[in-house]
UniProtKB/TrEMBL annotation:
Domain of life assignment: Bacteria
Stored Pfam families: Phage_r1t_holin
Protein name in UniProt: Holin
Originating species: Gordonia alkanivorans NBRC 16433
Length: 79
């Protein structure tokens, strides 16, 4: 389950989730100066942890050796 491909996929998902959740804090018209960084850290940390746990839970589904719950075709589909 913890193959290099799986770790790469899980890390990519975790980094994207962390960035998205951090940016989500600024949607409410909060500036960098006025943001509660402790709360932001807690939000980002929780979202990232959930992302990693979701990747681990998805390991037995989808394409083997990846963090994806969806199977991908062996070769790309024609459009």
């Amino acid at each position: 389950m913890f193959s290099p491909q799986f770790l790469k996929d899980a890390a990519e998902r975790a980094v994207k989730t962390a960035a998205q959740s951090a940016l989500g804090v600024f949607v409410a018209d909060v500036t960098v100066v006025s943001v509660d960084w402790a709360a932001t850290g807690a939000i980002v940390g929780t979202a990232t942890l959930v992302s990693v746990l979701t990747s681990i839970a998805s390991a037995n589904f989808g394409t083997p050796g990846t963090a994806s719950a969806v199977s991908t075709p062996e070769k790309p589909l024609d459009a």
